C-alpha cells in the first residue's frame, strides 16, 4: 500500500529546518488546503481530514516550529504566532502554492487571522477549528496549567489512560481505541515508548506572554474582520472551554456570511473526523467552488 503522504522539508527565514506532510496530487483540481495545528499539536492531528480531502485536492499539514519533526528554537521568545505566520509563508513558497484554503485548529486559527491582516491575498477561504478572535479565560488557564510541564507516560496504555482522565468530561463518548489513537497523535515514539512531541519552551513562551500582559488575553477582532473578505467556516466543539456559543454568535454578528457547525460531544478541539464536521467542510468547499 503506497504511503498516504510525502515528506516535505523546508527552511524558515531564521534558519530552522521545518517539516510538513504533503497529501494528494500536486496537480489536483481543487484549491490546495493548508492545515495549521494547535499550540503543542502537529501534522498528525489532521490525518483524518487530509485523507478525506486529498482525493480531489492537495493537502499540506506542517509541524510548526518546535513541534513534531520540525526544528526547535534556541529561545522561547521565537515561539509566536508572528514567527509561525512567516514560517507558513515560507512553506507556501517551498511547496509552490500561491493561494490556499486554510484550516486552523486553535493556535493555527490565530495564525490564519494574523495572515488575513498581513497577507490576505494568499487565503482563498478559511476554516477555524474551535478558535475565534477572543477566547474563554478558563480554557487558557487549563492549557497553561499543563503545557510544557506534563509528566511523560511510560507506556502507550498509560498515555491513553492519562489523556482520557484529562479530557473525558469534554469528550465523553470516545472508545478505548480512539484514546489510543489520540495518544499516538499527541506523543512521539522512542524505543517503543511515548516521548514529548514538542519543545517545552512553548509552555514557557505562553506563560511569559500572560505575565507580560498581566493575565489579560488580547483579542483579535480587527484581524478576524479581515477574514470577511473571503469565505469562512467556524467549527466549534459542543463542550469547548475555549470557543463558547456566545463568542460564535458575536463572530456571526461581525461576519454574517460566516458558516458554522457544532461538533457534538467534543471539547477543545474537535478531531475533524466527526461526520457532521466533514459534511459541513464538504458543503463549504462545494458551495464556495473551492
Structure in words:
There is one protein chain. The protein is of the alpha/beta class. The chain has a single domain (5-137, 217-287), classed as Rossmann fold (3-Layer(aba) Sandwich). It has 10 helices and 10 strands. The chain has an 8-stranded mixed beta sheet with strand order 1-2-4-3-5-6-9-10, with helices on both faces. It has a two-stranded antiparallel ribbon with strand order 7-8.
Helix/strand structural class: alpha/beta
- Poorly predicted regions: none
- CATH topology, anyone? Rossmann fold
Number of helices: 10
CATH architecture verdict: 3-Layer(aba) Sandwich
Tell me the count of domains. Answer: 1
Full CATH superfamily name: Alpha/Beta hydrolase fold, catalytic domain
Average pLDDT value? 94
Radius of gyration: 18 Å
Q: Globular, elongated, flat, extended or rod-shaped: what is the shape?
A: globular
What can be said about the biggest beta sheet? 8 strands, mixed
Distance between the termini: 29 Å
Strand order of the largest sheet: 1-2-4-3-5-6-9-10
Helix content: 25-40%
Features of this protein?
single chain, about 290 residues, alpha/beta, Rossmann fold, 8-stranded mixed sheet, two-stranded antiparallel sheet, 10 strands, about 20% strand, globular
Mind sketching the topology for me?
Elements: E1 5-11, E2 17-23, E3 33-36, H1 47-53, E4 59-63, H2 81-95, E5 100-105, H3 107-118, E6 123-129, H4 137-146, H5 156-167, H6 176-186, E7 188-190, E8 193-195, H7 201-212, H8 221-226, E9 232-237, H9 245-254, E10 259-263, H10 275-287
Parallel strand pairs: 3-4, 3-5, 5-6, 6-9, 9-10
Antiparallel strand pairs: 1-2, 2-4, 7-8
Helix pairs in contact: 2-3, 5-6
